[in-house]
Amino acid sequence: MILWHRALAQRGAVEGLAGLVYSKKGKGGGYSLARPAADIRVGAIVRALDGPLAPISCASVTAFRPCADCRDLKTCPVRLIMVEARNAIADVLDNRTLAEMRMLADPADLEATHPI
Fold first, then answer.
1. What's the Cα-to-Cα distance from 83 to each of 23, 29, 51, 71, 76, rounded to whole Å?
2. In angstroms, what CA-CA distances link 16 with 8, 40, 51, 76, 80?
């Protein structure tokens, strides 16, 4: 599937999608999936486009940073809830593929897209 270059460029995401897409220059160029859609997890796409899944930095696995006002990371009730939320989000996104996401789309919307 050739992905629309402008959509990726607007997000500033081209560099972050390394390993997920590759570029093709020239006429008919753009970005294509680097692997089959069934092998690309939605969590990888979200992380590439938006960064860590955690709602706050002290709950992040990949970009952990303690809060300035937190006295104890192990007992902070805000952090404990946010870690639980981060894990729930990761459980969904890391267990669904781009191919599965596409199958959830409205068939009318798929007519205007390229096959993946």
1. 36, 41, 16, 16, 11
2. 10, 14, 9, 32, 29
Spatial distance between the Cα atoms of 34 and 19, rounded to a whole number of angstroms: 6
Question: What pLDDT does 49 receive?
Answer: 84
Residue the block writes with tokens 């960064």: 51
* Distance set, CA 91 to CA 7, 41, 43, 88, 106 (Å): 27, 11, 9, 5, 24
pTM of the model: 0.74
Expressed in angstroms, the distance from the first to the final Cα of the chain is: 5
| Per-residue model confidence as pLDDT tens digits over 16-68 | 676 888 877 888 777 788 899 999 999 998 898 888 999 999 999 999 999 88
Tell me the C-alpha distance between 11 and 98, whole Å. Answer: 18
| Pairing between β-strand 30-33 and β-strand 2-3 as defined by DSSP bridges | antiparallel
